[in-house]
Amino acid sequence: MLNDTIAAISTALGEAAISVVRISGPQALQIAARVVRLPVNVTPRQAHLCPIVDEEGGALDHGLLLYFKGPASYTGEDVIEFHGHGGVLVTQRVLDRWLACGARAADPGEFTQRAFLNGKMDLTQAEAVMDLIHAQSTLALRAANEQLGGAIGREAAAMQQEIIPVLAHIEAYIDFPEEDISPETGADLLRRIDVVLGRAQKLIATSEQGRILRHGARTVISGAPNVGKSSLLNVLLGFERAIVSPTAGTTRDTIEEIIQVHGIPLRLVDTAGLREAGDDIERVGIQRTERELERADLVIEVVDGSRAASSARLVLSPEFARRRILILNKSDLGIHADWRSEDGAIPLSCLTGDGIEPLRDAIRDVIATAGPLAADHPIAINARHKAAFERSAGCLLAARAALEGNEAPEFIALEIREALQALGDVIGQVDVERILDVIFSTFCIGK
Description:
This protein has 15 helices and 12 strands. The chain is of the alpha/beta class. The radius of gyration is 30 Å and the shape is flat.
């Protein structure tokens, strides 16, 4: 796969000031010579003004060509970038010209895949490229940049470095069965295992944070009809997204939008009012509301605070109740005495905007209970990382139990190898040679 040269449009489709067509592979410069009127000497990392020519030698576009000689490039291969005019037709024609002269259309993510395969980044950094592109909040952007800088990879590598000597010791005792593991050595091996376990558990605890940062906290706005759910959605969004009407049952389907609150992405879901359905369409809408409530990370329950408390309230489990914020809407009309005993309820007026900032603060505080969303905690693992760290932690726990139980070193080594492999899966590699180096250098086998 790495023997061919790939090409793709690297900027979003549509009209813009400029567009970038990128080519990577061993034939990048040779193909460029057929497509572009190159200067005599193409200096790497220097912009060259030149035209793209068609098969008859006519100019398709004029722009800047940059040459990045491998391995000092994004992919680790020779890379050519042509920065031309950002029209849809002209950009496509330029790409077609590169393809006609020997390049192959790149598959999705293939440039970053080549960067990983060529050792320019580990697997966590490759994943961070898309996290950076899709970041929808400042915290998500910061976490993606930390991951792109190798934060998670460095943690996994450090854990590998900590556990490799443990495996090296166990492998040595396998080779020399007449030697028993001394209590002092066993205690040191357990200490090393515990250190790695602690680091793994700390990272696993960030998985919920990672999910929220990458996909947004699913925040369902719920309540009885005509209490102001759609009005609250519009106020939080800052524009009229949902239809607001005094007619009960106006919202019959869920409406979903993404906003950012204190750097946290929220997937706001406006739902149909909870009541006895008047027709089949409304019944379907209420069923969808119930499904959304089951999936929610946070529920914003809206009531009409100016009226007496009704029985149309959400019934939530004690655990889920901690992820609910009660909004006493229409506070501009006054708060009814029935609501004064509700601890933590937030008076709010969608008409005047009073109470919006306390609501934003409450959202931040409730979501923060899902994980360490503080700005000083840069690492947030994804589901794949979580599975790998959990597998590693499980194997280390099994190895620890086997070590304490004085089981055969072969069983202990098997679990540690599995733990090491799981850590290698996080970053996309595991280096067996490092294990051998530690064995030979530390224990001087064969001396």
